[in-house]
Amino acid sequence: MAEKKPAKANARTSREALARLKGRVVVVQKRRDAPLRPMPIPGLAKAAREAHSER
Amino acid sequence: MERATVHGPTDDLPVLIWADTSFLFAVCNTLDPGHATAWALYERLRTADVPVVICKPLLQIEFWTALRKLPRELRPRQVERLIIDTEARLGHQQTLGLKTMDRSDPAAVRQHVLEFGERLLWSALETVPLVKVRFGQKHVVRSRYWIETCDLKSLDALHVELLRSVADQAGVPASIATLDTDFLAVPDLHVWGLR
């Protein structure tokens, strides 16, 4: 009977997790520090809900 | 079958988190009913430098599906206003590079809506550590399992297949930032953004 592989321990940090994704990751992009400024976009919530039904 | 775990604002943040479009729309749009909750989560993730994992082609398709409907909800003057506001938010170094919109041309209106919408949504992802992952035919094929077992819509099923494969490879719990309650049907999934 083949030996069962031991369960992999969870990665404890994002650095460790990202290291395990080698080969799968297209790019890791550092963040831009200027914060996002959200804005009122009339109709978008409704458009997004309707689009969701098409997924 | 056990369902997903819903996390709240005082729970420890995950090591990595997958983002879907419902979360990004709510973060960017102050008129979204889920904006306050999404924004609070976004700020926590950004402050804690939690990497946000996405599949860019998948998000791109979902952005377009929603943005394509937006011109039906807006008057052309509102579209022009949104473009001006978006450029103001992107900062002095970025403009949308669009010609003056011909309000009578539906194609021009759609072009402008898709452009400002995409720029705003992608700009949200520029403010967090962003991890873009590849996907292939095998993920598409495997996503059918989530349609069958959890009755997910097709693109939601692909989200789940991708995020679980990434979580398995990374050795972390599968976590998603979303306002979409359909994901609650997925066992062993950690859902952020609903509380």
Write the layout of secondary structure elements.
The complex is a heterodimer of chains A (55) and B (195).
Chain A: H1 14-20, E1 25-29, H2 44-52
Chain B: E1 5-7, E2 17-19, H1 21-28, H2 35-47, E3 52-54, H3 56-67, H4 76-90, H5 106-125, E4 130-133, H6 137-150, H7 154-170, E5 175-177, E6 190-192
Parallel strand pairs in B: 1-6, 2-3, 2-5, 3-4, 5-6
Distance between the termini of chain B: 22 Å
Order of strands, main sheet of chain B, comes to 1-6-5-2-3-4
Unreliable residue runs of chain A: none
Uncertain regions of chain B: pLDDT < 50 for 5+ in a row?
A: none
* Class per helix and strand makeup of chain B: alpha/beta
Report mean pLDDT of chain B, rounded to a whole number: 89
Strand content of chain B: 5-15%
Helix and strand string of chain B, N-terminal first? EEHHEHHHEHHEE
Question: Residue-averaged pLDDT of chain A, rounded?
Answer: 77
Q: What percentage of residues of chain A falls in helices of 4 or more residues? A: 25-40%
| SSE-based structural type of chain A | alpha+beta
